[in-house]
Amino acid sequence: MAYKTKQREQVLDIIKNSNSKHVTVESILNIIRKDNIDISRATLYRTLDLLVNSGALKKIIVDEKNPPCYQLCELEDNDHFHLVCEKCGKLFHLDCEKVGELVEHIEEDHGFKVNPSRVVLYGTCDECAKKNK
What is the number of structural domains in the chain? Predict the structure, then answer.
């Protein structure tokens, strides 16, 4: 990042202090409104693009039905998958040592180099599954 601005610092702080590893523009805007921070939607989009281009954030696009999510690069784990609930649309970050084993198997036995951070599995989250019982 060439230089820091108040808005960039505020956006990074919001993402760092988020309870989630993945945040959307709407979730950031909700915090901005709640905390009366002076950042417009347009400035937020520009700031997020700059932070992605600088390498501070990673932009995760799961599919056309879900909004892009942003994740701090310093939190990034190379061996993780994403899970998407088909009922509620929530995105989950799967931290599991078995992911690394699966990636190794695919690479060694099938000759395919996997980008684990781009792997998305679809299904039903525990919360939605409980609602349907």
Answer: 2
